[in-house]
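Anyone? Bumping this.
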Amino acid sequence: MISLDAIHQGKILIVDDLEANVKLLDKMLRNVGYVSVASTMNPLEVCKLHIKNDYDLILLDLNMPEMDGFAVMDGLKEIEGDNYLPVLVITAQPDHKIRALTAGAKDFIGKPFEMAEVLARVRNLLEVRLLQKELNDSKNVAESANQAKSQFLANMSHELRTPLNAIIGYSEILAEDAADAGNKESVSDLEKIRAAGRHLLDLINDILDLSKIEAGKMELSAEVFSVTDMIDEVVATMQPAVEKNQNSLEVDCDAAVGEMHSDPQKLRQILYNLLSNAAKFTEAGRIVLGVTRPGQDGEATLEFSVRDSGIGIDSVQLARLFQPFMQADSTTTRNFGGTGLGLAISLRMAELLGGKLQVQSDPGKGSVFTLLLPAQVPDSVEQTVSVVEAKSA
Ligand SMILES: Nc1ncnc2c1ncn2[C@@H]1O[C@H](COP(=O)(O)OP(=O)(O)OP(=O)(O)O)[C@@H](O)[C@H]1O
Ligand SMILES: [Mg+2]
């Protein structure tokens, strides 16, 4: 709620070409406690004054010789853009009511006016204006806090990776030494340290990726590459994960998919995430990775799909699937591992590449994730994200 005291501090501008009207309104407002009341009889200077003083309410006459109130409102709209237009029209032309309200005035009073009505409307409009300002301020605070959080996470993740790499590296060296010395028990313990370190490193890398994307610091490294070569690589890497749960992986790739100009690293990462999910949430089932260039748009879009015959996803879960740290339920981590970052990152990366990530699922029967990507990273993306043109190896 906005206090009456705060409302009385609201900045008001009276615009009327008749001095008597200006004086009357000014006196009326000051008498009930408004402290910041300015006025002008020159409509041509309203915009300049508003830019300087950012008024909370402008009481605007319509019929003025130098410039009519509608033209003043047009000027104010240009200043405010999509923001709230703090204008109350007070005019002797009641037939202009609808036109004034349609033009963006927040309220309308005909002359001659009743004092009590003007005061009540002024108070209501100021309350809305001040609430809207509070909302904007809270939004800005929340946005900058979110930005600071992403920056903090990005810095922390970076600091954590260096010692973690040392732990992983040294545990590997020690495991080799222990193997040479025939010390089996130590080898197994050191393997556990290494595996835990790798897991932690994957998690930190995911957090780093997500915070980079949220802070708008993720770079694209675009290059021309062969889609089939990239798919072969992805399949070879994912084969062990697929076989772990006795699944089979089939590739259904149009021979004519050809080349694309995009960021292969990011595309690979999305496909790894989708395939690792399919492998994780399917047992003794079938996973199909499909690639086509569908549609009539000059084959400018590539469609990658990952279909599985696994546990599926119910509608409640589907609705929040792409939120960070979101897993089906609290037993997911225990049963399947993971942290719930894979899809959040994949969706944001797909959008970064100018594409979309969609999902369809039938609980108990399986899921299909479809990634639609432009064959050429669009110019609009290249303008908003810093794109580093990479050279093909
Ligand atoms: N193919 C799938 N079949 C069934 N459920 C899925 C599938 N893909 C994702 N899910 C559900 O969506 C959740 C979020 O997936 P996401 O990839 O973001 O996280 P995760 O795999 O649990 O962990 P991470 O990817 O960070 O290791 C999963 O925990 C799972 O509940
Ligand atoms: Mg995952």
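Late reply, but here is one note on the structure posted above: The chain has three domains: 4-113, 141-214, 220-389.
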